[in-house]
Amino acid sequence: MVGLPLLAAVGFLVLVPAGFIVLAAFSEKVPRPGSIGLDLTVDNFRVLADAGVLEAAGNSVLIAVCATVSALVIGGFLAFVTARTDIRCKSFVFLIGLMPMFLPSYVGALAWAILGSPGAGLINTGFRDLGMTGPVDIYSVPGVVMVMALYYAPYAFLMMHSAMSMMNPDLEDAAGTHGGSTWRTVRSVTLPLALPAILGSGLLIFVLIFENFAVSQVLASPGGINTLPTFVYTLMNATPSRGNEAAAVAVVLVAAVVAVTLAQRRVLAKRSFTTVSGKGVKPRTLRLGRLRTPALLAALLYFVLSIVAPLLGLLLSAVRTSPYMSSFGSLTEPGALNITSFVTAVTSDAFVKAAGNSVLVSLLAALGGTVLAFLAGYVVYRTKAVARGALETVSMIPLAIPAVVLGIGLLWTWLVMPVPVYGTLWVLIIGFVAVQMPQGFRGIASAIQSTDRDLEDSAVLLGAPRLRAISFVTLPLLRVAVSSTFLLLLMLSMRELTVPLFLYTTDTETLSIAIYDQFENGGALREASATALVYCLIMFVLSYLPRRLGAKKGAHGA
Amino acid sequence: MKVDVRGLELAYGDFVAIRNLDLTIEDGESVVLLGQSGCGKSSTMRCIAGLETPTRGTISIGDTTVFDARHGRAVPAYRRNVGMVFQSYAVWPHKTVLENVEFPLRMQGVAKGDRRRRSLEVLDTVGLAHLADRGASMLSGGQMQRVALARSMAMSPSVLLLDEPLSNLDARLREDLRVELRRIQVEQGLTSMYVTHDQQEALALADRIAVMQDGRITQLGTPEEIYKRPASASIAAFLGVTNVFEAKRGTSERLAELVGHGLSLHTAHDIPSRSASVCIRPEDVRVDLVDTAGPAPAADGSENSFAGTVDVAVFQGSSIRCKVTTDGGLGLEAVCAPPVTGRLDHGARVTVSVAPGNVMVLPETVPEPAVTAVAA
Amino acid sequence: MKVDVRGLELAYGDFVAIRNLDLTIEDGESVVLLGQSGCGKSSTMRCIAGLETPTRGTISIGDTTVFDARHGRAVPAYRRNVGMVFQSYAVWPHKTVLENVEFPLRMQGVAKGDRRRRSLEVLDTVGLAHLADRGASMLSGGQMQRVALARSMAMSPSVLLLDEPLSNLDARLREDLRVELRRIQVEQGLTSMYVTHDQQEALALADRIAVMQDGRITQLGTPEEIYKRPASASIAAFLGVTNVFEAKRGTSERLAELVGHGLSLHTAHDIPSRSASVCIRPEDVRVDLVDTAGPAPAADGSENSFAGTVDVAVFQGSSIRCKVTTDGGLGLEAVCAPPVTGRLDHGARVTVSVAPGNVMVLPETVPEPAVTAVAA
Amino acid sequence: GDLEDTKARTAAELLAKPAIDTSDGLRVDGELIADQKLYQAARKDTAVLYSGTGQEAEELTVARFEADTGIRVRLTRLPTNKLAERALSEQGAGRLKAGVIRITDPLVAREFAEAGVYVPYRTPFHDRLPRGTALTSDRYWAGYYIVNAMGYNSAVITDDPPTGWQDLTDPRHKGKLGVVAITTGGSVKALARFQIEEFGAGYLRAQARNRARVFDSTSTEVDALARGEIAIASLSFNNAFAAQAAGAPIKLVVPEEGVAGAPTPLGVTEQGLKSPAARVFANWSVSREGQRFAASQGFIAARTDIGRTRAGAYQLPTADSPRAHLLTEDQMERHSKADERVWRKAFDHLG
Ligand SMILES: Nc1ncnc2c1ncn2[C@@H]1O[C@H](COP(=O)(O)OP(=O)(O)OP(=O)(O)O)[C@@H](O)[C@H]1O
Ligand SMILES: Nc1ncnc2c1ncn2[C@@H]1O[C@H](COP(=O)(O)OP(=O)(O)OP(=O)(O)O)[C@@H](O)[C@H]1O
Ligand SMILES: [Mg+2]
Ligand SMILES: [Mg+2]
Question: Is B203 on the interface with C (CB under 8 A)?
């Protein structure tokens, strides 16, 4: 009943822009509003046979696979220790898992370039100060993989955290009494039960890394490593822009992601992952014993690599009067440091306005996105609506389309729509909701799969209309997942760069654009670093919002 | 309200869990659903409650047709006013005990104070008033089950479905709640359907018993009817009649020849010409120690009486359940009072006897009805 | 292996669920834990299995101390080789039935082919071999329970803990599995601990029964002992002795005066001078219709015999359970065979009689032992 | 706001404030930019500018314009290709907001002209633009040229500083050389054309042999140079100049052989014709003041009659100098495909 209207809504948000792109992929010219021609062709797909594309694709796959696995390991580890064990400083470790979200991957990459470049990287400079040769080269495949993993691990963390915090310990206890050691229990019960979350976040992360341009640009290109995102970027940046070919690449990616989504659906459909049942969910934490301290140390290592070191790098480049530093000793010279860049950064009208826009847009987009994702997740995994398969696929499509390409699709869509949203903040909000549909959907869907439907059905039998039952039983049970999803979408919206680039105007400029512009300027590294730090601070403060919601009283949860 | 189920069919994917099920529960009646594990009891309840969408058939509650596959009609679950105690309890782990029980009253718009009072009353009935403010996931298994029960009782539904609501409770509590349930049911004229594996419970609660086998109802009758005249040998076996033997008509119409034993039993019932089974309730098998001075078995020709040896005897409180193998090789199970002198132990020599009236003659299974033209 | 629990105490937050519990299960013995809902049975099992950390006491299995609060020693659950069937089943929903059962064998490093064979064997025992490849969440309640049981049986543990493993099964299956369990237990000399609310089950499976009340063991003995000589009136009541009356010593040492009834009962037991309870098993109450030609009650002075009226009578298959109020106002419950002629119905006039040997005299509760110096 | 003040101050540091006379229309540095009627109308109006050039450079230009004229500008900055997509789409949907658009690619300008984004417009100073140089249309013109020259990190290379293009192939800088990918934009194409024409394709290969690090964007290259990650590079002059002004230890080199430049087209839209402020901005950008300000930012001014204007310590050649190798629209069309192939082959670069 609710399936079809919802499919229509999501389809409208997602399919119309995607439709433009498919059209572009098969057109000779870019089909813009006002000049939509039907000069169809398949020539655009020839680009896939372009020399070097295969090598680039190979590199991208290698990087994406390694980084996805690493991100899953990091995120899974943090999620497990915070949701299920008695690790020391639990709430701080939770923050550790979350915080890299505040650092957009391109800022993280730049920070790591500052830290780890083979020539002038701070780490190498430090080593040289100590009389050793600088051993670190971030401009390498391992370097790119590390940075990608560091900044995508929070996705895995957030999604798995909600899955793991809802697990019924009886299921694990059963493994314990049947001879499974802690590790084997985790491997054969805990992790498999979190499979929807693992596969879901793995799929997300893989595709996002595969398409990530910023990190490739900053870290891979200087090292002479070609990647597919750079290739798509080149296509889009060619003059005149080769949008049709980029769209063709996007169509191939969409096909791949649809296939992967279907495969994932098949894997998950065979089994059930219900962990919260009406026979009770007794909150119980695992004792780490001797591992308590090592686990904390591991989390701290991640914290240092993803947050502390990069922020210190940025801080140093924000307060250093000269971007060049021959040795750490030179910092003690008079006039080497000052903080004017911060003052410049935060006092400007433009900054204040952009910050305001960003916060407003992000909050609304995260809210809208969470609601939509919940509805879609619910319809797909709890109802027998005919449309549910289609709904899931459609929800995942934005993931497949590189943001640059999707941005154009959204631009076309909202230019031709006879509703006056273009040029306002609304168009950004709508765009963000569409772009982030996959992230929201996966986050919630995996949680829905883990609650026993009897719980909700019993409320219905006790006289509650379905919606009431959802709000009384299902939503509160999914509290952790819903608030994590909200947080995820909030952060993503704060960071979203490519889509607003096509949709913003001076009045609706967002912080991410302001910062990107500063970094893009070249030479404004000081101000850019300062602004980036302030930006991280804002995200940090914002992130308290959903955590307040999530941390409310309750018998179980984070 | 009267519940009427016609031609019900439910499939989980390819697996057909309920096939062509007909069942009527009269207004105010309590029907107990008996059947072996996996035969489709919970599924039937879920259909009546509106939680599953059957593939065929109609369901009506009172005068309303709440489901009709042919006309695509399906009243949503929350408007059926059907209460259900789930086999999986479905207690909400994130709420307190009281919040769980108050919920249906809140849905009915009962004012706060009143709601609390009534909920506490019900909780008191199930013996949990002192845990009202405890989180519902911090309870023992039996306590959770009682919360689930209380929640449905608080709702005052027009039809109450109970899926093994007392399975985790101790005998005494169970008996108390059983009496309480029966009282409420009779007092409020509540139509109810009950799944239990406990025969005592079935007998105590049922106006009628519906025996379910393989997704359909094979016998429906009062407890005494079902107990005294099971419709088939498989039903008899299910009801605890352990002595079931394949038989054919012997030299007389009332002499059953046990297939594979070379033994015959006198019976007071007619034996059909096609194959049948004879069933003897363990309570109807009399066991006497051979060296006892008890009254000898009646020696008239119609009495079945065999010498045998005790294989195993289990003390059951007020009675003893023992397995005896007759010298002719027939294994018989018997439940009898402890002998006044001597002990019924492994190896003891005994005489077993069964009155012909207690030798039941039944078909193997209840024949599948020709599929009625429901789909037509 | 022998299990020895000394001075166990477990607290959930502020709530003390187990207090100073002592229990020894001999090697190869099967102890059934009886006790009312919420008394701490599951908690005790979880402590033995190593799933909860007690606040006090020691637990040893065989020669190994697996838990000692004072020395901070705690062997992790997976190294105790203790099998457990959970009250909540805890069947892994993401695995197939077979995978569930294979798990413990995999943990023991059994080779693949062997593992499969053995698992299928166990599944066959519980009657689920045909569902081996079904996802474990697509089962009925009873089927899940059997998967949980099979999983623990496959493990061949040194100690097996079973928390109401058969509560959702029908009588017949239950009996089969009960026999099977007992066979395995005896054959393998398995030490086991069993929670059940079914008295029949308790009697059939137990070498000894441990009665648990309020977090401690109040009586431990063979089924016959417990049944014949409950240690207190509350235990008797729990065991289904519904006729419990407060009493004091009357005119003779063997005459109990029922407090508040002005009635006296002859008993074959001595009555202590302090307050006590008299308990009469319903099976020991004889009910005779007044107008029946049955043998009149023995008229010797020591027989307790009263005239009364039937309040309610429930048909229970082989017997009838009825409530009789004597003309003196005493309510008595009785379980008796159906009378040969006439019907025991509401309002029927009867004579009830109880032999003095069946009038038990018991203390109200088992006195709490002076706390032994465990913590010292 | 404060930022505007800061920017205006920075602008004033680059080039001293001009003489402004508003007694009869707007006259800056002696040139009449708007008559009284237009000027009065423009003061009540806001110019909407879409720009594809660097944020910093455009913001300074806008601040300077606002300080000169008191007319407000709303700037939307986007990378050229995205800007093109935006403008063409908005135009198609009839919702184009911009009055003036500045981009970095002549071929895009041509597309704009064809699509009717740019409309014919002549500033009062159009006659002063050198005839037949870079761009050929009545709908857009070259505002200035983005220059590619050389630069080095003066903290890393302290002795024997580089002076000419051949230093890029000097083995002493092996692994310390940076170049920007040709796919990045018009000015890099101009550089490639210049290098191939002047030194032959072998020169590109020589750079590659020197293990040149290829950057995907101008800014990351300049950052890398500033941090000493690379020591020497061919780079975007005005980016590096701004970085130097911000304190980076970068020194620029304007080699004897000359520098490469690509035009940045500017044009007015339908909307711009109706917007007095937009017209004044267009006029101003071709005025002596506008052109000198561009030159002071490190661009080559389109006009050649504005006198020598230094960018800080550097003096770029004027547009009519033989040392200014300016890519024309024609050349671009003819050579860019082939050049790109050669370049990519030389640097083994994907694209
Ligand atoms: N997580 C918990 N937090 C607080 N109290 C608890 C928790 N789990 C159980 N209890 C309480 O501890 C007591 C003992 O629980 P336990 O589960 O051992 O009972 P049980 O004897 O197994 O009962 P049942 O027969 O109903 O399963 C109960 O009163 C219960 O309410
Ligand atoms: N989700 C499902 N998918 C497939 N088959 C199912 C599913 N749920 C139940 N079944 C099957 O349907 C049949 C009937 O299930 P149902 O739960 O109604 O049994 P039941 O009579 O309640 O049994 P029990 O007494 O064991 O609870 C069983 O054989 C079961 O295996
Ligand atoms: Mg069931
Ligand atoms: Mg329990």
Answer: yes
